[in-house]
Amino acid sequence: MNNGIIITNANKLTEAIKAAEVRMGIPRKHMDGVTISVDMNAQKFPSSYNGIPESTQFDAINRKGKWYVTKIYRSRCRYAGHEVEIKLTDAAKAHVIKRVEGFTLV
Fold it and tell me: Of 13, 53, 70, 96, which alpha carbon lies 20 to 30 A from 21's?
């Protein structure tokens, strides 16, 4: 295998995890046990596209502030806007609820 491809793919996984982490906006202390499923190639295909588009996707779990990839697989390409699926723990959910309840409109 070409090492350049492996490094590039590993970098893409890391970038996708960091982007998901930023979008969630949950402090690391509340992230333990949170899982994500990522399709970096989610997109809309034209109706004229024949076939079922597939993409490489991965699952990861956060343990003690670090992300661990648990599965890499090919599956049906998700639609644009659905790049990341998140499963929150009770602690993460509580933080999100607390943050949202604290919103005030100015």
Answer: 53
> Side chain identity at 106, as an amino acid letter?
V
Q: Report yes or no: 17 and 36 within 8 Å, Cβ to Cβ.
A: yes
Provide the H-helix boundaries in 1-106: 3-24, 90-101
Yes or no: say if 4 and 56 are a contact pair by the CB < 8 Å rule: no
Dist. CA 64–CA 28, nearest whole Å: 8
- State how far the Cα of 13 lies from the Cα of 4, in Å rounded to an integer: 14
Q: What is the pTM of this model?
A: 0.78
The mean per-residue pLDDT over the stretch 77-103 comes to 87
